[in-house]
């Protein structure tokens, strides 16, 4: 019995060593310092569209969960990072209306400097019928005010976080989709200077025929110069520029980065660089949609030339998607995203440990010691939007 016990212990140690060696030897994960799920168990089978914010009380994350996207039982949930771990999902908003119950969608968190934590979300049967709502917390996400409906025609930030400009305008990146002809994808902005009490619109961002974008992220280059990076149906991430604090914008144009018709996010870092989290995936020839794996992080100094930094997920099983990224006060990059529609993943990256490789011709660099997993099972992306 003692020999068997020693054998099992040695085997376990050997397998652990192999696993550790595999993680350490992956050059695209050198900068990952935390890799965890928000929860192990939840009162819902599926989840999606996560968002994250740093508050004076700690990190707060939100997402929607329910039987399945578009199901009326889909609600908005919140988890808080306390005492070194995430709290269990707390339901903070549902789609119960006087006439019937609708699904909720795409929460977006924003911490007002010195003020409330804001949470925008949507209620509606589909993106074409969304109504925007907002709820507020004064205690870092522990308690929330009753939901308030936004003015007619406003939905709040569609997926990615607002950006507070130097002129104190809070710019909410948003978009429309889902009209009868199916070609309504347009990017615009909703602007508030009183923390979500009143709004005005800017846009839509001009675009040539056939250039279709939604779900932009805003990058602040300083001195009134802004850039957006947006999801598209054009097999590439699209971008537009403003030189007047977002009041007017250039025509949408393709970047040299691919897009699989899935959500992305980006953040302006404290050192002036930009971090972008996305699926570095070019769809198959003739198609506008690709698998939602791998999930990648790239860095740029100017928003034009990008350098490969990390691969957060590379399994051939799809659905590492709808990421959100922030930089916290300690300089770490916090990424949160959908993990196979089953859980929400949280990954922390130390920017100082990134070993950057220039992306040329839109292709992820090849590095010694790393081989991408071979093609395998791909989950059904039919329900994704």
Gist of the model:
This protein has 385 residues and is mainly β. 6% of the residues lie in helices and 40% in strands.
Strand residues, percent: 35-45%
What is the β-strand count? 26
Order of helices and strands: HEEEEEEEEEEEEEEEEEEEEEEEEEE
Low-confidence stretches: 1-24
Taking Cα atoms only, what radius of gyration do you get, to the nearest Å? Answer: 21 Å
Distance between the termini: 56 Å
Shape: globular
Class based on secondary structure composition and strand pairing? mainly beta
Number of helix segments?
A: 1
Q: Residue-averaged pLDDT, rounded?
A: 92
Helix content: under 10%
Biggest sheet descriptor: 5 strands, antiparallel
